[in-house]
Amino acid sequence: MNPEEAISRKFIFPSGIFSIEQEHNIRYIIVPILFARELLGYQDEVSSIELKLQPGVNAELFQNEIIQILGN
């Protein structure tokens, strides 16, 4: 019944800052994966993965290979 109990809170000390552009700076933080999983109540789930490909790599083929490894 207490709305405060619906919010998960954890404390972490910042070890650095980044500045890309204002839109990104106010929306994103980078934290260790274990910290994020504990805060969000995840076990081993991942909501996204970002990869940078070397020039000349076939992105569609690479994407299909990743899907075969990681699943949908």
Through-space gap between termini: 37 Å
Main β-sheet: number of strands, strand sense, barrel status?
A: none
Uncertain residue ranges: none
Tally the beta strands. 0
Share of helical residues: 25-40%
Oligomer: single chain
Q: Tell me what portion of residues adopts beta-strand conformation.
A: under 5%
Q: What is the global morphology?
A: extended
**Kindly state the mean pLDDT as a whole number?**
86
Radius of gyration: 17 Å
Number of helices: 3
Order of helices and strands: HHH
Structural class: mainly alpha
Number of domains in the coordinates? Answer: 1
Report on the architecture of this protein.
- The protein has 72 residues and is mainly α.
- The protein has one domain (3-70).
- It is built from three helices and no strands.
- The chain is extended and about 50 Å long.
- The termini are far apart.
- The mean pLDDT is 86.
Please render the helix and strand layout as text.
Blueprint: H1 22-25, H2 33-40, H3 59-70
List keywords for this structure.
single chain; 72 residues; mainly alpha
Quick structural overview:
The protein is mainly α and 72 residues long.
